[in-house]
């Protein structure tokens, strides 16, 4: 038995076509794990010393910033992941850099305008939408930092497009490490309950600026005066990005509607319980995300080079890698979830355990269906993916409206599980029907 497993593993890792994904994942995955580990330490400190209410407020601010930056980035953080390697392969690094610079300027201008409008609308959002006047300060503060959050999102994905996997790995660690550093330093200096909020905002502000500097430096090392430059019109850039924006918006709604509706219908403590359950369940998603980090630009490169057989081979092996690594994490959540919630976060967080189980099952389905969403966006199927995501969004909103007022965070978790299963299964089936090849992985399936 040992020899059989050893032979299978050797065959799996020695595949030359897959080696780039495997090596890249070896950098990205530990970075994701370490970054999330730092995030967990921060969450534990906040939960222990500042309480579930502050955990809930941070979750609300994160959701607010995520929703805002979806529209300020306009899907370019996904499209640039495809366009950077495409321009490098077809034209030159200079062409790719000019595309990046154009996108960056557009995002900064829109972010400043949006942040200004939101700053003056904070009172309306807090009192009329959420019916919580005490959140006005937090929404106003978030609006000021919209531009930095947008920079972080765009530059993080740009490092992926450039295949700067080590830099991308650092970008995964930087926000959480800065957050934890500021949390500890400010917590010792200033005895105020808003310290976790300031630490979070400082973390992604410095990360966004760092990414901007590093990307510019790496581009300039590869550019030549003789490079062919293909200018892309703003209209063309938006025609690629906007379907991805719609997909990203719908994906955000699927992932964050639970937090938003819990904020509307329940108290901040229950939002905090749900946020911790989501964070624990996302341990599996970080594995998928780490593999996707390297796989996404590779999918784009192979598809636009016409190497379709190699594309599906790499996609299936990427799915297998994500599945095999995520399964032990899921098993650990089911077995150890309850004691972790009680002993690490505090006895009050035991209320999150049923929600954690539902969310973990949804992530199991996510891992089994492979990198289907990444595959769709990187192979020009963003419009079809948009339709699938919108259908999922409608299901998600309807179930949240029905279940959250009645059963609170359990309703949010159940809705999230159903939405994740629907989105990933339908997307994987679409790829099979469209291309005649599947990219999902099931145990004992030959790859």
Structure description:
Helices cover 85% and strands 0% of the residues. It is built from 16 helices and no strands. It has one domain (2-435). It has 447 residues and is mainly alpha-helical.
Please tag this protein with its features.
about 450 residues, 16 helices
Quick structural overview:
With 447 residues, the protein is mostly helical. It is 85% helix and 0% strand.
Which helices and strands occur, and which strands form pairs?
Blueprint: H1 2-13, H2 19-49, H3 52-73, H4 76-90, H5 93-129, H6 136-144, H7 146-161, H8 165-189, H9 195-222, H10 234-265, H11 268-304, H12 308-345, H13 353-368, H14 372-378, H15 382-407, H16 409-435
Helix pairs in contact: 2-8, 2-11, 2-12, 3-5, 3-6, 3-7, 3-10, 3-11, 4-5, 4-7, 4-10, 4-11, 5-6, 5-7, 7-8, 7-9, 8-9, 10-11, 10-15, 10-16, 11-12, 11-13, 11-16, 12-13, 13-16, 15-16
Main sheet: strands, sense, barrel: none
User: How much beta, percentage-wise?
Assistant: under 5%
Which range best describes the helical content: under 10%, 10-25%, 25-40%, 40-55%, 55-70% or over 70%? over 70%
Low-confidence stretches: none
Radius of gyration: 21 Å
- What is the domain tally? 1
* Tally of strands: 0
What overall geometry do the principal axes of the alpha carbons give? globular
* Mean pLDDT across every amino acid position: 81
Kindly name the structural category. mainly alpha
Helical segment count:
16
In whole angstroms, how far apart are the ends?
19 Å
What is the string of helix and strand elements?
Answer: HHHHHHHHHHHHHHHH
């Amino acid at each position: 038995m040992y020899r059989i497993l050893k032979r299978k593993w050797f065959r799996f890792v020695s595949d030359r076509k897959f080696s780039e994904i495997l090596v890249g994942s070896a950098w990205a995955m530990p970075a994701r794990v370490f970054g999330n580990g730092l995030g967990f330490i921060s969450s534990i400190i906040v939960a222990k010393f500042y309480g579930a209410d502050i955990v809930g407020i941070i979750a609300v601010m994160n959701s607010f910033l995520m929703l805002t930056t979806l529209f300020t980035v306009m899907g370019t953080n996904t499209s640039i992941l495809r366009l950077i390697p495409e321009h490098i392969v077809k034209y030159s690094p200079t062409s790719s850099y000019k595309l990046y610079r154009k996108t960056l300027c557009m995002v900064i201008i829109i972010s400043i305008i949006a942040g200004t409008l939101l700053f003056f609308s904070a009172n309306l959002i807090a009192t009329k939408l959420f019916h919580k006047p005490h959140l006005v300060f937090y929404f106003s503060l978030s609006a000021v930092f919209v531009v930095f959050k947008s920079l972080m999102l765009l530059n993080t994905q740009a490092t992926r497009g450039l295949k700067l996997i080590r830099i991308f790995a650092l970008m995964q660690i930087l926000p959480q490490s800065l957050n934890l550093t500021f949390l500890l330093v400010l917590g010792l200096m200033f005895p105020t309950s808003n310290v976790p909020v300031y630490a979070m905002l400082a973390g992604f502000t410095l990360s966004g600026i760092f990414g901007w500097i590093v990307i510019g430096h790496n581009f300039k090392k590869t550019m030549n005066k003789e490079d062919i430059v293909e200018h892309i019109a703003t209209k063309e850039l938006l025609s690629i990005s906007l379907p991805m924006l719609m997909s990203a918006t719908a994906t955000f709604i699927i992932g964050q509607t639970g937090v938003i509706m819990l904020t509307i219908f329940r108290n901040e403590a229950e939002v905090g319980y749900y946020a911790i359950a989501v964070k624990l369940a996302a341990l599996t998603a970080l594995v998928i995300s780490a593999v996707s980090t390297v796989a996404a630009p590779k999918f784009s490169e192979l598809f636009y080079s016409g190497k379709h057989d190699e594309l599906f081979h790499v996609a299936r092996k990427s799915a297998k890698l994500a599945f095999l690594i995520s399964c032990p994490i899921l098993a650990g959540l089911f077995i150890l979830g309850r004691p972790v919630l009680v002993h690490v976060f505090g006895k009050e967080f035991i209320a999150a355990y049923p929600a954690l189980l539902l969310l973990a099952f949804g992530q199991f389905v996510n891992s089994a269906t492979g990198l289907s969403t990444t595959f769709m966006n990187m192979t020009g199927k963003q419009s079809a993916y948009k339709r699938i995501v919108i259908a999922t969004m409608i299901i998600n909103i309807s179930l949240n409206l029905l279940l959250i007022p009645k059963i609170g965070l359990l309703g949010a978790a159940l809705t999230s599980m159903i939405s994740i299963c629907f989105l990933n299964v339908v997307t994987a089936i679409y790829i099979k029907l469209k291309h005649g090849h599947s990219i999902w992985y099931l145990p004992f399936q030959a790859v």
